[in-house]
Design goal:
Layout (H helix, E strand, L loop, with lengths): L1 H20 L11 E2 L9 E5 L5 E3 L2 E3 L1 H11 L7 E6 L5 H18 L4 E4 L2 E2 L2
Parallel strand pairs: 1-7, 2-5, 5-6
Antiparallel strand pairs: 2-3, 3-4
Length: 123
């Protein structure tokens, strides 16, 4: 029985160590803080880092590339969600640019895609 408990503790330590090595977001961002807890099914993720670079699912893009890439991701969706993960130092204009691209796609295809701004819990 003692060897079984040792085995359980070794497995526990192994899983604790390996779970900390998994990075959920490949692009490191310092997200803005918020108390709200809105959860939604995400269709595609757009990242804006502190250097104002845009990424569509970890692929660097400009505004035109974002438009064509979102068209591909949202092609078969009537109501998709675009999760915007923007660093807290990014000016609002860059966020509005992403919202404008999604609104243009909505107007062009008569769809109802929405943009959700990702945040981190307040401390």
């Amino acid at each position: 029985m003692a060897s079984m408990s040792d085995l359980v503790f070794l497995l526990l330590i192994f899983f604790m160590l390996t779970s900390t090595l998994v990075a959920p977001n490949a692009i490191k961002l310092l997200l803005p803080s918020s108390d709200s807890r809105t959860m939604a099914k995400q269709t595609v993720t757009v990242y804006l880092n502190e250097e104002f670079q845009m990424f569509l699912e970890e692929t660097p893009v400009d505004t035109d590339g974002l438009h064509s890439g979102l068209l591909q991701y949202l092609a078969n969706e009537e109501e998709g969600s675009v999760v915007l993960r923007a660093d807290q130092s990014v000016p609002v204009q860059y966020i509005v640019n992403v919202i404008d691209v999604v609104n243009n796609i909505n107007n062009m295809n008569q769809t109802r895609h929405k943009v959700i701004l990702a945040t981190q819990p307040q401390r």
